[in-house]
Amino acid sequence: LAAARRGGHRVFEAEAHWHLARAALARQRMDWAVADCRLALDIAARQGYPWLEAAASRTWTEIALARGDNAAAVRSTRHGLALAQRIQARAQARQAHLQLAELLQAEGDAPGALDHLWQHLALQSEIERLSLPARTALAVPPTEQAGAPASPEELLLQLCGQRQRLAAAPPPEALAELKAASARILGLASVIRCPLGPGGLTPREQPRYIDLLTRHGAPLALPDAALHPCHAELAGLPGAAQARIEVPLYDGAQLAGALWLIDAKPTRAWTRQELLIASQLALLFEAQGN
């Protein structure tokens, strides 16, 4: 802080005040935390440094919560969200939406909390989609394996090698085999293909869920089924109470349904590799037709 002041570097001075505020908060020195965080916010705003202003707003939210001031926490989180959206910082915006969902739920504003939870999951899905490799055609594995496959990746390659045989098999048999193989690969309780139309997903019964699938088109990992933004719409469907990965299914360029890869428990921490495997499994289901 002293060096930044001597050099006249106001941006560095703001960052120093922010770090001091975080340190003071960790030590429960609220007076120091408030003073330094206010200075960081003021300098960042004056210097046109929205990233730091958004970060300091998150710290101010933590200070407000530590002081029991939920209303101030909501205001600072909304301010941080607006800044994150202005600079298109998806990760910060996602975190702010989740924070607002929790704060509004504590205030009893269930519709507001649900709206921000929806936006949090939408951003999470977008970030995951941008970080995953494109869903390209699966490579054909070697026909000879030196022993039984052990890892999920080896099991997936073996399944890919059965594409031609599955394509020639009666559709019900091929679908049942795909489901059983998918369950083995990811250690699942069940696999459900939810088609669009009667007997599946319909605009009348699941309008928000179909909209979510249409707009984002990427695997959605649900570590906790209760956090699904469309939980109420899906509550009556099999597997809706379990943790799962949901992958949109397509017929050409048109949405044709969703593949649900369902765990046996209500919660499960899905990995990035499992998301990638889920995306590849969806290609095999698409090849069987919808």
In short:
The chain is an alpha+beta fold. The protein is 60% helix and 9% strand. The chain starts with a helix and ends with a helix.
Describe the structure.
The chain is α+β, with helices and mostly antiparallel strands. The protein has helices spanning 2-7, 10-26, 30-47, 50-66, 70-86, 90-106, 110-131, 152-160, 163-168, 171-186, 207-216, 231-234, 272-287; strands at 190-195, 220-222, 244-251, 254-262. It folds into two domains: 2-131, Alpha Horseshoe (Serine Threonine Protein Phosphatase 5, Tetratricopeptide repeat); 152-287, Beta-Lactamase (2-Layer Sandwich), CATH 3.30.450.40. Helices cover 60% and strands 9% of the residues. The protein has a four-stranded antiparallel β-sheet with strand order 1-4-3-2, with helices on both faces. A hairpin with a 2-residue loop joins strand 3 and strand 4 (254-262). The longest helix is centred in the middle third of the chain and has 22 residues, at 110-131. The chain starts with a helix and ends with a helix.
How would the blueprint of this fold be written?
Layout: H1 2-7, H2 10-26, H3 30-47, H4 50-66, H5 70-86, H6 90-106, H7 110-131, H8 152-160, H9 163-168, H10 171-186, E1 190-195, H11 207-216, E2 220-222, H12 231-234, E3 244-251, E4 254-262, H13 272-287
Antiparallel strand pairs: 1-4, 2-3, 3-4
